Amino acid sequence: MADLAEDPRVSLSRQACSKADAAGSSTLTTKLSEFRDSCWRFLRPHTIRGTALGSIALVAKALMENPNLINWWLTFKAFYGLAALICGNGYIVGINQIYDIGIDKVNKPYLPIAAGDLSVQSAWILVLLFAAAGLLIVAWNFGPFITSLYCLGLFLGTIYSVPPFRLKRFPVVAFLIIATVRGFLLNFGVYYATRAALGLSFKWSAPVTFITAFVTLFALVIAITKDLPDVEGDRKFQISTLATKLGVRNIAFLGSGLLLANYLGAILVAIYMPEAFRRSIMVPAHALLALGLIFQAWILEQAKYTKEAISQFYRFIWNLFYTEYIIFPLI
Fold first, then answer.
1. What family is it from (predicted)?
2. What is the pTM of this model?
């Protein structure tokens, strides 16, 4: 009978091939994982959270105002709208990173292009895909008016970052662009699109008017305070911001003061318009958020405005922004 045992040399060869295949598979998996991580950081997750929460909150409010008109098709349309907003968000923050590589190497070295984890060519492919996908989704599902608003948002995001305009160099104009895109356009556009999907004409309600005004001012504060952690790089590259002109402490106080005025306004609106708002939620919620802001500003002062403390303060402001959208459907 023939010997059925495998030749040892064949066995060793097969083992070597298996190890090589496993190593190749592991390398590919690692590269894909790293690319996915780079793309996620490229999208600036904290901005996506704000966009997603704002969209969900406005849609929820419009549906709560008209519960008899809710149908399952709206779920798909809302998903398309959210995807388009995330694409637009990705385009705007991505184009900014492409033209801010030198500054980001000083201010935000963890960003994927500045860190060398994502090539400029790959970044361009991503932003163009984001813009094309977002426009296609909006034009296909939401009609010419919302498409024109979406294009306006992309245009403002472009001239904010791209030469020869690069309007981020001019503090007042830069603040107005950020407040317009993240404040007015997002809130008005989502609420308008949701009412249109319900078969209703546009009409401002008191809560939606409130949140649009509140978030527009809040977006202005974000625009002012976003430069606080970046003073070092902005000075090196001669980028004029209020933080470089007036100093970190003054801008932190200015941003805190504007937000406190925002919260005071929210409390007063609830007190004087009880028929439109739930006082039991509006008043204590905004009072607590205001106290939290004061405490965080005190911590920043005690820390002597170190870069770490400034970054923590800026993250706290974003958390306040998220919180406002979370409580909005309940007010």
1. Belongs to the UbiA prenyltransferase family.
2. 0.85
